[in-house]
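Sanity check

After download, print the first record. It should look like this:
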Amino acid sequence: MRVFKPRQCITISLKRLLVALGAAAGLAACSAGPEEDANAVSFAGYGGNYQDNIVEALLQPAADKLGLTLSQDTHDALPAVRLQVQSGEPAWDIVQLGASECARGEREGLFEPLDYSQIDTDGIDPTAYSDTWIGSNYYSVVMAWRTDKYSNPPQDWSDFWNVQKFPGRRGLSILGNEMLEVALLADGVPKDKLYPLDVDRAIKSINAIKPHINVWWTSGAQSTQLIKDGEVDMIATYSSRVAPLMEDDAPVDFTYQQGLLSPACFAIPKGAAHVDQAQKMIALMVTPELQRNVPEVLKYYGPANAKAASASPTSNTSPANIEKQVYMDADWWGEHGAEAEERYRTAVASSD
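Expected structure tokens:
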């Protein structure tokens, strides 16, 4: 079993260090710093081509309109954001996560409240925003495969679990969020009966496929590389990660059948240095004007704001593709996510 290890980032405040050393003169010399910082906003996302596209579609246009300088970093999902907040000086002003992670983070007190006096939610589904987070676009977890491996491709998650009919190297995420749903769908749970998740049944299903998982990936960017390089023949990943490979004529395809549909979300880490600027950027990024960039730049993804909806047949929010998928329940993950994640990680790590 191969596991990618997430990167950790630690930031040190120069100002606090100088204070600790009693370097008052040094602080005076740096007095111009905060004024310059007022025009800067930092963003952390999941990296890779997807992050490039979401920045092009939403973040950079918003920063340009506000006259802000945008810097970027990547994270390895909610645990990395949690570490940043616990440090007391998070390095990021805006983070993008999945709604299930945002719901968990809200319960843990990891985010600043959003200012809905600035943010207009007209056109945004009530399930796609909360006190501390709001949808940025809709993403889909899908099954992808190498077309040079399977002439008769798998059709749904039960085929992914069918190692006799579809032999080959497989990849799943190291995180239980989304993978527990996949495991239940593979075990025959109907889409309309998926929630509340039967975690016992999901873990049993994971244990059945575990001996046949060659890589447990830790980021969407890594999952893309795995299927692109042929290190796996079949993988649970994100449609927008597969789309660029297909456009580059890589032997890869995917299906929306039994896909998991959920909003990605923007949130402001608790204690962020530039909360006011982040609030203004988020308010702009969910407007129909900027949301229309989502289906233009990310052809396989739908906007969070229905006023910017696209009729493109490739969009995961087109009527035909929505019908094939199941909406993820962020509230369930907000309430039960910590325990469910722990049980999943224990099952993955177990040698049984």
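If your output differs, re-run the checksum step. Summary of this record's structure: The chain has two domains: 2-138+263-326, 140-262+327-349.
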